[in-house]
Design goal:
Largest sheet: 8 strands, mixed
Helix content: 25-40%
Number of domains: 2
Strand content: 25-35%
Number of helices: 9
Distance between the termini: 48 Å
Radius of gyration: 20 Å
Number of strands: 13
Strand order of the largest sheet: 7-8-9-6-10-11-12-13
Order of helices and strands: EHEHHEHEHEHEHEEEEEEEHH
CATH class of the largest domain: Alpha Beta
Length: 338
C-alpha cells in the first residue's frame, strides 16, 4: 500500500450533497478536514456541529489552508467557485455537471492545466458496483438502454428546488451520458431528442436516442417528475445481454454459448460510491504530490467536459424541437420555485 499522508481538504457548499462530502472526508483515514463553507451560514453551522468541523466565514481563508477542496454548490455556480480555487493552486473535485455551460467548463479545464493542478468531476455512478461489473464487459457493446427516474425535489427556502436550475439532462441524464461514453468508445454521429418542462422552467423529462459512428446506439430517458424512482442500465452486446439496477445493486447476464443460452445472476457487493469517489480523488492528489506528475482521478475534467458537451447538445435539441412544433409551456408557479 502506498504511503499516503493525510490530505488537508475542505468543502465549499454543504447542502444536500456537500454535507455527505464533509461527512465522508471526516471519516476517511486519508483526509484531514480543515473546514467547510456555505453561503447559507446556518446550513454550514448545522453541518459543522453535526460532524465536529470548523466553519469558515470566508471561502478564500478556507482554501488557503487546504491542499484540495470539494465544490458542491449549485451547477450554475460551479465555474465561478472552482476557477479561483484552481488559480490558487488547489486541487478541486467539483460535483457534476462540471459546469452549466460548455465555455465555462472549457475555462475550468484550461485553468487546471495552466496551474498544474487536478480537476475531478463528481460522476459518482462511475464508482457504483454495477459499473465496476459493466466496465469489464464494455467491448462489443451495440445498444444501451438507460432509465433514470426520480421524484420532484422538495422545496428549499429562498432557492430553486435542487437541480431545477438546469435541465434534467444536466441534472440526471448526464450520469448515463457519462456511462454510455465510457461503454461505447466511438464518436457521436447523430441523435434525436424530445423533452419538456412540466413543473420547472427547465426540462423535467427528456428522451434521447444517440447513434454512434461505429454503429452502436443508446436510448436514454431521464425524469424528475416520476412517482417511482428507477436507475436501470441495460447493455446489449454481440453475444450477451446485461441488465443492471444501480439502486438495488443487482443484475443479470444472459450469454450465448455452444449449447444455447446461459444465465448468471450478479450479486453486487454494496459499497458507498461517493466514499469511493472521494478516496479516488485523495489518492490521485497524493500520487501527484509524490511523483510531481499529474495523476488524474478516475473522472477527470476532460471527461466531465466531454459528457457536458453531449448533454448540452441534447438539451438544446429538445428546445429546438419544442420551438419547431410550437409547443408552449407555462412558466412554473412561484411556489414551485421556492
Amino acid at each position: 500500500m502506498e504511503d499516503m499522508s493525510r490530505l488537508r481538504v475542505g468543502v465549499i457548499g454543504v447542502g444536500a450533497l456537500g454535507r455527505h462530502h464533509a461527512r465522508l472526508y471526516a471519516q476517511s483515514p486519508n483526509a484531514e478536514v480543515v473546514g467547510i463553507f456555505d453561503v447559507q451560514k446556518e446550513t454550514a453551522e448545522k453541518v459543522g456541529a453535526e460532524f465536529g468541523l470548523k466553519v469558515f466565514d470566508d471561502w478564500r481563508e478556507l482554501a488557503e489552508k487546504c491542499e484540495a477542496l470539494s465544490v458542491a454548490v449549485p451547477a450554475n455556480f460551479h465555474a465561478s467557485t472552482t476557477i479561483p480555487l484552481l488559480e490558487m493552486g488547489r486541487h478541486v473535485l467539483v460535483e457534476k455537471p462540471i459546469a452549466s455551460s460548455v465555455p465555462e467548463a472549457v475555462a475550468m479545464v484550461e485553468t487546471a492545466k495552466k496551474n498544474n493542478v487536478l480537476l475531478g468531476v463528481g460522476h459518482v455512478e462511475r464508482f457504483n458496483p454495477a459499473m465496476d461489473f459493466l466496465e469489464k464487459y464494455a467491448a462489443h457493446t451495440r445498444f444501451v438502454e438507460a432509465h433514470r427516474l426520480a421524484q420532484y425535489p422538495p422545496p428549499r427556502p429562498g432557492l430553486p428546488r435542487r437541480g431545477t436550475e438546469v435541465s434534467v439532462v444536466l441534472d440526471l441524464m448526464i450520469h448515463d451520458i457519462d456511462l454510455v461514453l465510457t461503454m461505447i468508445d466511438s464518436e457521436v454521429e447523430r441523435f434525436d431528442v424530445v423533452g419538456i418542462p412540466v413543473l420547472s422552467k427547465t426540462e423535467d423529462i427528456v428522451n434521447a436516442r444517440i447513434k454512434f459512428r461505429n454503429g452502436s446506439c443508446a436510448s436514454l430517458t431521464a425524469s424528475r417528475v416520476s412517482q417511482e424512482p428507477m436507475r436501470r442500465f441495460r447493455v446489449f452486446q454481440e453475444n450477451s445481454y446485461i441488465s443492471m439496477d444501480y439502486g438495488k445493486h443487482f443484475g443479470m447476464v444472459l450469454k450465448r454459448n455452444r449449447i444455447g443460452l446461459a444465465r448468471k445472476d450478479v450479486n453486487l457487493d454494496d459499497k458507498n460510491a461517493l466514499a469511493a469517489e472521494l478516496e479516488d480523488f485523495i489518492l490521485a492528489v497524493n500520487r501527484t504530490k509524490m511523483t510531481g506528475v499529474l495523476c488524474q482521478p478516475k473522472v477527470s475534467g476532460e471527461a466531465g467536459l466531454r459528457a457536458l458537451k453531449l448533454a448540452v447538445a441534447i438539451q438544446d435539441e429538445a428546445r429546438r424541437y419544442n420551438e419547431q412544433y410550437g409547443f408552449k409551456f407555462a412558466p412554473a408557479a412561484p411556489d414551485e420555485l421556492n
